[in-house]
Amino acid sequence: MDLARLRYVERFVHPNYPGLIVGTLAFVLSLTPSLLPRDWLFQGLVSGINAAIGYGIGALLEWSYRKWIRPRLPAAITDLRTGQPDWLPGALKVTTMAACVVIAVFTLVQSARWQREITALMGMAPITTSGYLRTGGLSLLVGWIAIAIFRRVRWLIRLVAAEFIRRTRMPVRLAWWSGVLVVTVLAVLLFNGVLVKSFFAVANSAFSVRNGHTSPNATQPMLPERSGSPESLAKWDTLGSEGRWFVSFVPTAADIARVTGKPAREPIRVYAGLESAKDPAAQADLAVAELERTHAFERKALVVVTTTGTGWVDSTSVASVELMYGGDTAVVATQYSYLPSVLSFLSDKEKATRMGKLVFDKVYEHWSARPVEARPKLLVYGESLGSQGSEGAFADLADIRARTDGVLWVGPPNSNRLWSQFIARRDPGTPEVQPIYADGLTVRFALDRADLARPPTEWRAPRIAYLQHASDPVIWWSPDLLFSEPDWLKEPRGPDVSQTMAWYPIVTFWQVAADLPNAQRVPDGHGHNYGTVVLDAWAAIVEPPDWSAELSERIRAYLVESSALEHKLK
């Protein structure tokens, strides 16, 4: 590239060369392995934003140098630029651009290899290097758009500063900082106030419409053991989309008998949607009234489920208990939001906690009023944000042990209060991804079926189990990743986490955050997909008296078949 072409490019792009260097570094770091594999499209979005952030940091460093450092340098150093050849600055700029391009392309090729390593760990089809190189072009476009937006913000700051100078004769430096302050305050107020409230209002409205949708394969149950049936106190059209699916896609007594080879009962499923009652307390009362109506307290096992944001309940998890106990079970769940878990977590995660406590306390009140010998096993279940809401029903471990017969929490977010306490107090020498707490006496953590028997010591009832994959970003994403390396990267890695994954300040926080949307787009046994290991967990927590390995495998086969059918129908 000759100097004339360089000047043309500079007039069009206005590059900041320190920004290019730091932006390239940020781009390269964004291509390093994370928890989950990514295709070129998603990686392009992530890397483009990373590169734009790095470009901004580099530009800020260069501005700081010109503003505060260069004026204070000794004359002997500043004079070095005097007499340098005219072609040298241009040559350095061309070299910088070329080096950034070469480094970016080299890292893209290496990143394709890393992605193939991760897909191999998870049993997924490998990506091709040629296809993955498209990441570079998309990243360039995304980064350019982000930088253009920043430049418009800078233009606005200068405009405000100019108005201050024109109207108040304010000194230039003070006017500039005043412009920064005004634009920042307006942006914060707009984002925290109007934009955020408007976004969640629109999202709530949009998902409330979705909540009214009913899958054509979800039909109103006629059996009295289901909410939404003609005899139910919770009407079919109030259950919401997920609630209607929950009470219609249920293994029947005939299904259970066919799988187990024994007589079975119709499982009870109780659900209260957001529109089923006027407020959360009324929803909880309605749920308990439904339990009473269906004689749920006379069954062998009663499972209190805290749902995810939209009211979703994992069918495999509840069906596992129903098949284990021959249908002699009741499952109760309630909806607390129209929004998916990610948006519920951001907007008001306390809703999950409040609902989890309300429902469990109401159920426990009725359950504990019955004679001890006439009580079903009282079990607690929650997945993802549902586990956080479910934990909210209990003050501490002693409270769990005093009021339940078993607990299963799956894929708990890093902000879960009780989970965080157990992890922080794990036995010395045990890693964060496979911790042992108090020698496994009451609480256990498992990546897979074998982990449930670890350590080989007594596991006292009531048993509490957490299922957590080493590659699940829902568990490992935390603001702490910004500036501190987590134990799960310092210690031996989980079986499906790349050995080449490393922690970098800020970058890893963004990398794991970017993994969240892909958490369930991986095979069972990885990420946030727990598959039939929930069956093994329930069997370890509350094993029925007639349980056997052969029966376990028959039930597992049914669950796999049922899950595939659900994905097809829903």
Give an account of the 3D structure.
- The protein has 570 residues and is α/β, with parallel strands linked by helices.
- Helix content is 54%, strand content 7%.
- It is built from 22 helices and seven strands.
- The chain has helices at 3-13, 17-30, 40-69, 75-78, 87-121, 129-132, 134-168, 172-211, 240-248, 253-260, 280-293, 315-324, 341-348, 350-368, 385-391, 397-403, 417-424, 473-476, 487-490, 507-515, 533-541, 549-569, and strands spanning 268-272, 301-306, 329-334, 377-383, 406-410, 443-446, 463-467.
- Strands 1-3-2-4-5-7-6 form a seven-stranded parallel sheet, with helices on both faces.
- α12 (315-324) links the parallel β2 (301-306) and β3.
- The longest helix has 40 residues, at 172-211.
- The protein is elongated, with a radius of gyration of 29 Å.
